[in-house]
Amino acid sequence: MDTPDPLLSVEGLHVSYGAKQVLRGIDYHVSEREVVAVLGANGSGKSTSLNTISGFVSSNAGRIVFDGSDVTALPAHRIFRLGVIQVSQSRDLFPFLTVEHNLRLGGVIRNRHEIEDRLEQVFEYFPRLKERRGQQARTLSGGEQQMAAIGRAIMARPRLLLLDEPSGGLAPQFINEIGTIIQALKDDGATILMVEQNLALAFKVADRFIILRDGTVSDGGFVRSLEGNYDDIVRTIYL
Ligand SMILES: Nc1ncnc2c1ncn2[C@@H]1O[C@H](COP(=O)(O)OP(=O)(O)O)[C@@H](O)[C@H]1O
Ligand SMILES: [Mg+2]
After folding, report:
1. Which domain holds residue 109?
2. Among 47, 59, 60, 213, which is best to mutate for testing ligand 1, by the most ligand atoms less than 8 A from CB?
3. pTM score, two decimals?
């Protein structure tokens, strides 16, 4: 039987900032309902890789194919409309808007009925956001802001959810909660490409791993389990 085409494929992607070449021909794919984690040291191009998929950064060479269409040259708003929704590393909430207003803005590409529906869904995933729906986003703790940022992305009903370091800067208790949420999204059929420096979290939720190193996908970049591999993985990433 033929395996279905992946939802996302990245083929021979090269990205530079001016003279600085960050990605030197990377290839990977994400299939429907998969959770794939991108690992790599600081500055290895993990965020660049996500930002190129969502159209915020343009590539010098290579192709990005989403759901059978070449999206390499599409502007970010068109890619967003296709349902490729990114939660950036900086979360980018509107600080002076309420939690609920931030969430509703995430549903801008959906109709009114869908927005109400999604809002209920987000509050099921994040009861804490329901409690805090009337508060300005700036008054939330770091962990709650990450929840709001993920919640806002879910409002768009993503076909591919891109998460850039969801555990970044969070206390252990929140890292656990975020892990539980990612697991719940996965159980509900989400397709997720996530960047994560927290190996324990990545290994808890991801089906596959991609290790970026020196602008390419490392040979050791397709491991499936942390068990017995931990030292190898750390060496591949950092040494
Ligand atoms: N907008 C930019 N302009 C110039 N250099 C950048 C820009 N964004 C990232 N870089 C550089 O590109 C490299 C990869 O960055 P990034 O993709 O953010 O890495 P990671 O997310 O893996 O830490 C780093 O050396 C970073 O300093
Ligand atoms: Mg980054």
Report:
1. 92-157
2. 47
3. 0.93
